[in-house]
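Troubleshooting: if your tokenizer reports a length mismatch, compare your output against this known-good record of 480 residues.
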Amino acid sequence: MVSTVIRIARASTRSTICRLSTFTTAALMFGLLQVANAAMPAVPNAAHDSGGLEPIYHSGLPMPLPRPDIALAYAAIPIEVTPPVRRPSIEDILPRSTATLGQMIEQQTGLESSGESTFELRSGEGVAKLLRRAGYSEPDIATSITAMATKTSLRTLPIGLKFTVSENGFVFSHKVGRDIYTLRDPDAGWLALTTIRPVDSYLTFAHGVIENSIYQAAAESAVPDNALLEYIRIMGFSVDFQREVQPGDAFEMLYERKIDLISGEEIDTRLHYAGLRLSGNQLGFYRFAKDGKGVGWFDKNGNSAARTLIRTPIAGARLSSSFGMRRHPISGYNAMHRGVDFSAPTGTPIIAAGSGTIKKAGWLGSYGRYVQIKHNSTYSTAYAHMSRIAAGIRPGIRVKQGQIIGYVGSSGRSTGPHLHYEILVNNRRVNPLTVSLPTGEKIDPSLLDIFRRKVALVDNEVMANGALRYVANDLTLLNE
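Known-good structure output:
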């Protein structure tokens, strides 16, 4: 009996399967178990006597079959699925603004209106006082303002906002591309509606060779001021326009202009690409929205153009005094000049070299009107001799990089209008033109493919202009 059990165990460990029918295999196993239980003599060794059957050996255990899907047991019933309807754009919902207020009044109410006048919202004045100046009755003022308040907040209307007013309604521009009409309806009373001003966008590629200054070269190419200021801000992280730009260097930029088709005015300018050939070195940066985290500027490899601080926080200025020992222009003694001076006309805007919190803002002895910004635990910047400090700039206020904080002047101990600019590292003044500044973050790798498609679109648009592209192709025609 012991020999029989051992043989069965060995056969089991070899996973031996005989070519028998299911019924025959079951009967054989049943018989072997009966023999073992009855303590009968051992059966012949299966390894030596297979009864003419050849065993098949498997190296692994057999896997069970997957359980059938219960859904296959039911009859298939065809159904119809209606896909979701695409959400209509705002342009398909809101009406379009008209060239005159009278046209909108007639279109919406059927009334005729004439004698349109323009009024500006004065300091300390609300809409009610403005309409009273326009000749509206008290009941009309109350009901029209109630209707208008359903479309906008009366607390957010800025001083100087222009209202076009007639006897049967008035209109003002709520924001870029939007108007709010408040109209007298003969049946429903006063009603208000938001409309879309027709706006068209134009892409423009500008380029030129710098002979005297970037400002003059851009003016000769008719570059709008907003696009030029954005260009200088982006390039200002890497380039000192007062010292590094030489005659023969070249610039290029691709910008978008939005034109109000009713008034013909330019309402917005957006720079998409900024390039510069600087003494043989080529710089090029592309605008990119970083997954809802704001807009950044990056080179083709996704490296940020931004630095912690801008080296020259003023446009159109000339470096008039460097960092280091100098003879003081007033006292006549040699002294350490712990900053740099930029000579510029009185009133020239001064921008924050980096984002941070205003630490000081006011009069500071020989510095005159003075602003200091703390950017982080390491870096601070200071700006002195201002003619005035910008509205709203006071200690504790958070400012963004590029925001105007004051204007060039000659306050304090000064011989003429200029900006005295300092960078402090761990509260120690350093040379703003030579200090090493860390760069901004790179584009997230998950967004690189999207960014590269944006780069390709910009490059294709530049090529479509068939113009000389100095930075990327070194004075070769793109369309050749």
